[in-house]
Amino acid sequence: MTAVVWAPAQPARGCPIEPLSRRELEVLELIAEGQSNAGIARRLYLSARTVEAVCSRIFIKLDLPPSEDVNRRVLAALVLLRGEHDPHT
Question: HTH luxR-type domain: which residues (predicted)?
């Protein structure tokens, strides 16, 4: 099952994901679809290590430090899905 959140677009000015690169947005959208790092790597023809690095950059740019209490992937996906990203810009 493949769910498409939306095609990558430029984020709205001032939104938390504005500093993300196009590749980082692509990976974040796949995270929001529930893809694992291995799944993202296969879809984007990247190595697992590259996906890990991109995820790390996403978490840094979204100010999501490591925590035993929360899942950063879920929090990052929520930033995207809560409308803090304007796909029509």
Answer: 13-83
Return mean pLDDT, the chain.
Answer: 83
Q: What angle do CA 9, 32, 76 make, to 5 degrees?
A: 85
Q: What is the pLDDT of residues 55-83, one digit of tens each?
A: 999 999 999 999 999 999 999 999 998 86
State pTM to two decimals: 0.77
Tokens matching residue 37: 């790092």
Q: Which residues contact 61 (CB under 8 A, 6 or more apart)?
A: 17, 19, 20, 24
Count of domains for the chain: 1
6 in a structural domain: no
